[in-house]
Amino acid sequence: MRLAFALFKYSPYGGLQRDFMAVARRCQQRGHSVRVYSWSWDGELPAGFERVAVPVSALSNHRRQQQFAEFVQQHLAANPVDCVVGYNRLPGLDLYFAADNCYAAKSAGRGALHRLSPRYRHFSAFERAVFDPAAHTRILTIAPRQREDFQRHYATPDERFVALPPGIPRDRVAGADAAERRHAKRRELGLAGDDWLLLALGSGFATKGLDRSLRALAALPEPLRQRCRLHVVGNDRPARYQRLARKLGIAEQVQFLGGRDDVPDYLLAADLLLHPARSEAGGMALLEAAVAGLPVLASAVCGFASYIADYGCGQLLDEPFAQQRYNRQLAEMLESPQREQWAAGGRRLAREADIFDQVEQVVAEIENWGE
């Protein structure tokens, strides 16, 4: 098959981008040709991939997306393929990998002025192009609540949805050498035996609630706070959060590490994952941490939060979010005698839950397209 994949930006450290790359590589291995449309690409382009660099010049994000869509449609008209797979919402997709929450649901409480804005009209139109009952796009969802929201707002037929497992990498699972790797990484990081390493994992610091974690760290009782280090792994602009850390008096305890290839060792070395996200369709970091035996403190809004609750891998933050409650839960979890129970819950999750084999299911959907 001739396949086209469309996503606005590629970086090897984003969750959506890693999902795309795993699927595209597997499709290539199975003999399909792979073309990728993107307006930016950070990292190596795999041999045999055809990348079409989409020119965008607008200043606003919604106008860049419109330019992107127009270019892709024109290019496909002149250079047709058998299946178009989108990792961002666009008109004309055959399959859409639903990595984002429903925009209509998120905008439901906004006022009339918001609905009159060009930004709202754009995002609503692009979402409707995928989910309208008259559209043909098949939708691959990663969390049950996604389907509920989309159907509530668009009445998309059941048969257009395909439920996928989360699809976390198997190298995140703690192996027989986990204790040895933990000690080695902590020695490398200069951590004492009684130091707490807190981990924030994921790009998009505002969405992931990094500011909330900085405030929670600063609010810890002094003896406990002095033992804590927060390492932030993910691609984003850190300046705003570095300023906040300085303002809170915790700058020396916070390190911004960018995207990294040694995430499995960080998961083993850390003592607690902090993920107080404001919005999260899935939340791959929650499951990556849990199967590594790392307890999780995360927002209940995350699509994968139910796994944390069902398998007892940590604690969830109720909605609406309250900073003081988060501060209190962080302090309680650090000193809780339940830490080994949470780690055991993560190991049971790795043994029992269907959370790994997403790629093969996506490839099967692509190969079955049109049949």
Could you please describe the fold and organization of this structure?
The chain has 371 residues and is an alpha/beta fold. It contains 17 helices and 15 strands. It has a seven-stranded parallel β-sheet, sandwiched between helices. Strands 12-11-10-13-14-15 form a six-stranded parallel β-sheet, with helices on both faces. Strands 2-4 form a two-stranded parallel ribbon. The relative contact order is 0.12.
- The DSSP helix count reads 17
Task: Please outline the major beta sheet.
Answer: 7 strands, parallel
Low-confidence stretches: none
Give me the secondary-structure category. alpha/beta
List its traits:
six-stranded parallel sheet; alpha/beta
Quick gist of this model?
With 371 residues, the chain is of the alpha/beta class. It has 17 helices and 15 strands. α9 crosses α15 (323-334) and α13 crosses α16 (339-352).
Summarize the SSE layout with pairings:
Blueprint: E1 2-6, E2 9-10, H1 15-29, E3 33-38, E4 40-41, E5 50-53, H2 61-78, E6 83-86, E7 95-98, H3 103-107, H4 112-116, H5 118-131, E8 138-141, H6 144-154, E9 161-163, H7 178-189, E10 196-201, H8 205-208, H9 210-218, H10 222-225, E11 228-233, H11 239-248, E12 254-258, H12 263-269, E13 272-275, H13 284-291, E14 296-299, H14 305-311, E15 314-317, H15 323-334, H16 339-352, H17 358-367
Parallel strand pairs: 1-3, 1-6, 2-4, 3-5, 6-7, 7-8, 8-9, 10-11, 10-13, 11-12, 13-14, 14-15
Helix pairs in contact: 1-17, 2-5, 7-12, 9-11, 9-15, 13-16
